[in-house]
Amino acid sequence: MLPHWSPLLLLCVAQLLSPSSALPFEQKGFWDFALDSIDSGGMMMMMRDEEEGSAIEEIPPPDIPMCPFGCHCQLRVVQCSDLGLTEVPKNIPPDTKLLDLQNNRITELKENDFRGLTNLYALSVRNNLITKVHPKTFAPMKHLQKLYFSKNQLTTIPKNLPASLVELRIHENRIKKVAAGTFSGLSNMNCIEMGANPIQNSGFEPGAFKGLKLNYLRISEAKLTGVPKDLPESLHELHLDHNQIQAVELEDLSRYKNLYRLGLGFNHIRNIENGSLSYLSRLRELHLDNNRLSRVPQGLPNMKYLQVVYLHSNNISQVTVDDFCPRGFGMKRTFYNGISLYSNPVNYWEVQPATFRCVSDRFAIQFGNYKK
Predict the structure, then answer these.
(1) Is residue 232 within 8 Å of residue 212, measured between CB atoms?
(2) pLDDT tens profile 233-291
């Protein structure tokens, strides 16, 4: 005896079996693939089971990790910025590589906020209200290389940072002290940006940077009154702009023989002691603009690789013929390609042309009108 089928179901079956009425396949959604894989016999059986009242086991959804509400998750990048979050969201996919939590209102990072995120490569919590970080917050992050903590309210650098960390940006916080051993075990660290913190020279405890092999360090816009003497000697770039440094003394730079670029602009420097630059034999770029220098620093002609010197916006009233270039031929390995002297009380027509005999091009020299 044939089962009792409704007219609607008979019509569906007739359309499926009739080749003349078949339309080209048009996918409406993900589950159309599942329906397409069922043959006509399977469809008949499913309809028969439904008519007889048997329970049909639902096809389980694919194993796709959830995405936190309001966030965007794609290609192992989870973007949860600008959502007004007050805490780290749950259900972050465990395979996440980059997690963006910037521009929220998160106040604390708890112990289990990043549990299971062992593949995380970069984390940004920039521009939040974070004042507290649990000592075990970063424990799951075995591969984290970039950590962006800028524009928060931290008073100390978080403890137990991941040993894999390469880059730390923690400027614009409230850090006044860097304790000894803060960066212990971070042998992979290459770059630290910690400017715009109210830290003084005394805030760096002896051994604060011990073990680090940094290439790049920025401590700009702080409250330094002198060049810190216990920074990593491996540095290639050191930026101390926008501080309150008043002088560069003889031994201030003796530790930093590997520097390629030194930034001392926007300070209160009146004097650079003769011989203090002699330690920087590899220096390529020197920024001394916006200070209170009354003369070109001594020692520049002996810096064989120096190419760029910023001296604008000082009180330099005289430039002599040997201020920049050595007297001997071939002593300088690279010519200057940038010397800025504008906004100084020196008349450019009084400077002898031979002063710039080791400059690659006359357009590399920047003079200008001085306005008191």
Answers:
(1) yes
(2) 999 999 999 999 999 999 999 999 999 999 999 999 999 999 999 999 999 999 999 99
